[in-house]
C-alpha cells in the first residue's frame, strides 16, 4: 500500500504472491510449533500437545486468531473470514517486547513486573476469572496447607505457565518458564514446594517448575506491587489531562514518543493502551 502518484489523496494497493515448497517433516515441525505456541488446538476435545498428521482435527485458538489479526493489520490486509472468527476471541493478549537482535523476550525488572501484574489481575489476588485460567488473571487459592503449615495466596507452577502460554505472545513452554523464573528472581512469588524430579531432569528450572507439584505463593513485594498497580490504574484517568499539559511545556511529543520506543516496558504499556483506546 503506497500513495497514488496521480492522486495525492488516494492510495495504490499492490499484491505480491510468494510460493514455496517444503517437505513433509518440515511441515509437521512447523505445525508442532503452532501447537506449542498455542496458535491451534485440537477441535475434538483431546488435550493433544503433539501434532497428529492423521485422524486429528485442529482449530485456531483465541491467541492464534489475535496473532493473525495483528499480522493482517500490520500488513494492510483484510480477510473476510477473520471477522467470522472474532467471536472466538476470549480475552486480551499481552504482547511481549523482544530484543531486535536475539528475538528473546525482555525480562528486565520493569517489564517483568508489568507481566506479573497482568498475571495476577489488576484488581489484585486474582479476583477475576476462574481458578485455573482467564485473561483477567489467575485466581490464587486463599489458603493451602502444605506439610501442616498454612500458606496464603498460592497457585501451582502449572497454572502460571499455562496462563503465560495462553495469554501472552510467548511461543513455547521454555519462554513461559523463563518469564516465571524471573518472577521468583525479582521476589514477586516465593516457592512453597519444589518439584525435585522435574528440577533434576531440567537443570535450568531450579527457581521455577511448571508442574502441578510445584507450589508458589504471592510474596509481600508481589502483593504490594499489584495493589500499587491497581490503584495507579484507577487514578490514571484523572491525571492524564494535567500531566499532558505539563508535558507540552517540558518536552515535545516527538521526544516523548522516542522515549517510549526506546524503552521495552513503555512500549509494552503504550501498545496495550493503543488497543484499549
Description:
By secondary structure, the protein is an alpha+beta fold. The chain folds into two domains: 74 residues, no CATH class; 170 residues, Arc Repressor Mutant, subunit A (Orthogonal Bundle). Helices cover 46% and strands 14% of the residues. It is built from ten helices and eight strands. The protein has a four-stranded antiparallel sheet. Strands 1-2 form a two-stranded antiparallel ribbon. Strands 3-4 form a two-stranded antiparallel sheet. Helix 5 crosses helix 6. It is globular, with a radius of gyration of 22 Å. About 10% of the residues have low confidence. This is Regulator of G protein signaling. One of its GO terms (biological process) is intracellular signal transduction. Pfam families: DEP (PF00610), WHD_Fungal_DR (PF25889). InterPro entries: DEP_dom, RGS1/SST2-like_Fungal-DR, WH-like_DNA-bd_sf, WH_DNA-bd_sf.
